[in-house]
Design a protein that fits this description.
The structure is a homodimer of 346-residue chains. Chain A is an alpha/beta fold. Chain A folds into three domains: 8-54, 434 Repressor (Amino-terminal Domain); 66-165 and 298-328, Response regulator (Rossmann fold, 3-Layer(aba) Sandwich), CATH 3.40.50; 167-296 and 331-343, Rossmann fold (3-Layer(aba) Sandwich), CATH 3.40.50. The first copy, chain A, contains 15 helices and twelve strands. Chain A has a six-stranded parallel beta sheet with strand order 2-1-3-4-5-11, sandwiched between helices. In chain A, helix 8 (167-180) packs parallel to helix 9 (196-211). The N and C termini of chain A lie far apart (65 Å). In chain A, 42% of the residues are buried. At the A-B interface, helix 4, helix 5, strand 2, helix 6 and helix 11 of A face helix 4, helix 5, strand 2, helix 6 and helix 11 of B. Chain A binds a DNA duplex (30 and 30 nucleotides) through helix 2 and helix 4. Chains A, B: This is LacI family transcriptional regulator. Chains A, B: Residues 6-63 form the HTH lacI-type domain. Chains A, B: It comes from Leeuwenhoekiella aequorea. Chains A, B: InterPro entries: HTH_LacI, Lambda_DNA-bd_dom_sf, Peripla_BP/Lac1_sug-bd_dom, Peripla_BP_I. Chains A, B: Keywords: DNA-binding, Transcription, Transcription regulation.
DNA sequence: CTAATTTAGTAAAACGTTTTACTAAATTCC
DNA sequence: GGAATTTAGTAAAACGTTTTACTAAATTAG
């Protein structure tokens, strides 16, 4: 049943002109190439009439451009990434690009596999939230000349374009906010990883804690233990034994994970503890209590990532100077970071 | 700097065999085509050595297959769709396919634009959550022989493959659950649309209400009024003036929207009202009160959608009989659907 | 020992574009 | 009025595969 789409050749035959002429006209080079008004009109009308659109695969083969970008994230179902994805999609489509999303599960093996699949010259550029161990693969992509922009984190010793936020400041400010609200035993729950988005958040927390002369209470969970028994035990222990009065979660899925646990062991805890989480979310707003969160500027992140990408794409082979953006996050102050005495007033 | 990737031609030159031979070997047709063991080995080793991978664009041009599928949803940042997307991605990559995600905003114009962009034979198949008015475009895709599977909803008068859930039963059961828990003035808040996923939910609600001899209280919000003043006013009016004791939301973003309003006008309302929402979500679990939700079987939906897609793809041009699946949703019973007296016990 | 068959490949066309290099006719220049 | 230039195009190569149709040499059949 599959009926053949018309090609330039068909148009050429129908109108009795060469395919070259048609190609020139279609690419807006008609005047430049001194094609007569009548011929241009004739071609344009016919193209309109038969509803011809060029075969993009053939175009890609010839030009080497696919107009497809890859956006590789940890997990596309995570709201933080899904929202960036949505914003990126909008920008890309406006410029005639499509976006392939893929999730690397913050897993090196999977990341490598995905990069391998895509680097087969199917793709014009990569926007990557890298997992910890794919420095080499990123380096290779860059070396063979494929545009790459990193997001959320980067490799200290690899010069790449990137867009991140000032995690240190954001974490410090958030911790200070808790301190200012008279919390004194503030725990920091984070993921065990060498990646700088996390280590910077840890440093921000530590700095604020040290400055205030408070006790540092830190739980670093291995990624694999999340939603597993091991993780549950660690969190339970921390929450119950340390007599803490506040918790700062370094990322949204940790918050989610911990809340489920809290819900089970002692629902009131969520009111009694001061709580701040990294990464904001519609649900933190409507939760009871509403959750104070470090909100990353999603739209702006997406815009900067794409700006850089398009700059690289436009520059073709000329190497452009590195663009490295650090944006500011904002603290969305809500009920969960108030001291208990005042918390239930609202 | 862009260094050229090796092509079959380069291999041919290096090994002094024809490109035909190499192509046969690479496609596993070596034995069949009587290529000698030694030559096969030689080619395979060299390919391994230089790390050659075929240019997919050229393959696509020649074979007409791109190994790319499109998954078009309302909004990829909505957790329901993001989760299906994640599941689809996994299945697709396992079979060597990639997935382009795009958001149509439940908007016909945008849907048409997206279909136009993709139907230029870049894409092997479409999985679509259709907006209300693109019946014709879907029909056209099918007519020109591109595989299409619809999800979440379908067009009553257009025979297509689809995967949906039994919205009528799910909504009826949810409403009955509220009734069984002694709620008597149960409102149904939904989107004004002719699409059957929504009308079926409405019918399910109505049936249960009628069966119980209760009063039907319905608010149908136009899609555009969500997160707008108009929508806020409508919801406020309903919540405050009607003396209702329970609400059933027909979709997750309505719940979110209403919760923000409730939070502002009267935070206690969230405890006083019986609440059920369509579409489950991690946050409903940890919310205070936890929210009773109709959970769609995300994984199963994704699996069925892809099963159908691969069946169509495998069948090539032979028309296969329509596959239309209706799956069951499950009611996740939590605190929000308990009567106030019992609600705060937990 | 010749004809038929099998083995082990290869040449070339095709997919649908873009682009470089060419040309024949018309026009301009001096 | 002949050379130079401009106009209005076109032919053909190239992008990197897959696949059909072919072939020369080796083997088998009778």
């Amino acid at each position: 049943m599959k009926q053949k789409r018309p090609s330039i050749k068909d148009i050429a035959k129908a109108l009795n002109v060469s395919i070259t002429t048609i190609s020139f006209v279609l690419n807006g080079k008609g005047e430049e190439r001194k094609i007569s008004k009548e011929v241009i009109k004739k071609i344009e009308d016919y193209v309109e009439e038969i509803n011809y659109t060029p075969n993009q695969v053939a175009q890609s083969l010839r030009t080497g451009e696919s107009k497809i970008l890859v956006f590789m994230v940890e997990d596309i179902s995570n709201s933080f990434f899904a929202n960036i994805a949505r914003a990126i999609e909008d920008i890309a489509y406006k410029k005639g690009y499509k976006v392939l999303f893929c999730s690397n599960e913050n897993n090196d093996k999977r990341s490598r596999e995905l990069i391998r699949v895509f680097s087969e010259r199917l793709v014009d550029g990569f926007i990557i939230i890298p997992s910890a161990g794919i420095r080499k693969e990123i380096e290779k992509l860059i070396k063979i000349g494929i545009p790459v922009v990193l997001g959320d984190r980067y490799f200290e010793d690899l010069p790449t374009h990137y867009v991140v936020i000032d995690n240190f400041q954001a974490a410090k400010a958030a911790t200070q906010h808790l301190i200012n609200n008279d919390f004194e035993k503030i725990a920091f729950i984070t993921i065990e990883t060498p990646q700088n988005q996390m280590t910077d958040r840890f440093k921000g927390y530590s700095q604020a804690i040290d400055d205030a002369g408070l006790e540092s209470i830190v739980l670093k969970l291995p990624f694999e233990t999340i939603n597993k028994k091991e993780g549950i035990t660690s969190i339970k222990t921390l929450l119950l034994k340390n007599n803490i009065d506040a918790v700062f979660f370094s990322t949204n899925y940790l918050t989610q994970f911990a809340f489920e646990i809290i819900k089970k062991i002692n629902p009131d805890l969520v009111y009694n503890l001061g709580i701040i989480t990294f990464d904001d979310n519609e649900f933190f707003k409507i939760n009871n209590p509403s959750i104070t969160a470090v909100a990353q500027p999603i739209e702006q992140i997406a815009k900067e990532l794409m700006d850089i990408m398009f700059k690289i794409l436009k520059s073709k082979d000329k190497n452009i100077p590195l663009i490295q953006k650090t944006l500011e996050a904002s603290l969305q102050i809500r009920d969960s970071s108030k001291k208990l005495s005042t918390k239930n007033e609202a």
